[in-house]
Amino acid sequence: MRFKIKNLLIIILICSFSTISKSANEDDIYKKIDLFSEVLDKINKEYVEDVNQGDAMDAAINGVLQSLDPYSAYMSPDSFENMQTETSGEFGGLGIEVGMEAGVVKVISPIDNSPASKVGIKAGDYIVKINDIQVQGKSLTEAVDLMRGPVGTDIEITVRRVGEKKALTFVITRDIIKVASVKSEIIDDKTGYIRLTSFNENSSDQIEDKIKEFKKNGKVKNYILDLRNNPGGLLSQAIKISDFFLENGEIVSTKSKRKFENRKWFAKRGDVLNGETMIVLINYGSASASEIVAGALQDHKRAVLVGESTYGKGSVQSIIPLKNDGAIRLTVSKYYLPSGKSISQVGVTPDIEIAEGSDDFRINTDTDNQLDYALKLLNG
User: Fold this and answer.
1) Annotated active-site positions, please?
2) Can you give 1-67 as a three-state secondary structure string?
3) Of residues 260 and 324, which shows the higher confidence score?
4) Which end of the chain is more exposed for a tag (fewer CB within 10 A), N or C?
5) Of 148, 173, 198, which residue sits at a domain end?
6) Number of domains in the chain
7) CB-CB neighbours of 341 under 10 Å
């Protein structure tokens, strides 16, 4: 049995290494495989406790994938089934978008008015413990599974936060996450403020409706698009929303190993704001689709970006089913801005950097440094 497990691991590693590094010397690859087999044998013989061989193989596969980037991961058959299951309200969430950084689960962004945002979870927090379970060393999929649970049940999350000496602990009650993706208001009688919290199926329609309402007002001459703490969503919506404000030109492109997946998207003629002044607010919680919109508008000099550098989630993942009924989440392409710059792990840098005064994004210029600065900029 042990011999069969070793052979299976060797086959897995041959496939993985041949895909990852085709240019590597074949002899070196086989030496590494022999080394891995030797290490596994030592573990079996010498480790103080018995090791579940299935778990060891899953960890080996996941280790290969996570060495590629923070977003690639292995999903066991159970995890893959859970991801595909429509919960119909039976299970709830915390309302946070998470990623991996140096083997630690990191909060990309809390969703507005979600259970996580209400208790004080912030973008940039590192999750170190879920209930009594240490998170370090676990995959992103495993951490997310730990956070899932029935609506109305409590979960204790311990985080490390930059600038805080002690770990912070939050008790969060799971709930159904309902995202109202667009909020708007007229400020100072002449500034149309639109906050976009996610890119879902109808976000572009909602924004278009809000702009029409502002135009009916007749006094609105300036616009603020708030993408702070927006973790992203549908690429199609990012393209549509960018297109609203551009006369022409490239919006975004994707580059992949497979040439047929290399694509470019362009704006159609016509700026719905007719060139009126526009400011986009961004912060570390702005990711993925948010970065595409902000970067495209910045590259075309259509809007001034105010706030903090964005997260840097500029890649596309595909879920690829496996023969064992599990799957892998694998990065298959990356986003590139019109300038040719990659968003991935770099993000978008604001034109004017303003530190955040508060993470409570309501119309309150007393606590919101970035919004306050944007309004002053628009009013001269």
Assistant:
1) 288, 299, 313
2) CHHHHHHHHHHHHHHHHHHHCCCCCHHHHHHHHHHHHHHHHHHHHHCCCCCCHHHHHHHHHHHHHHC
3) 324
4) C
5) 173
6) 3
7) 15
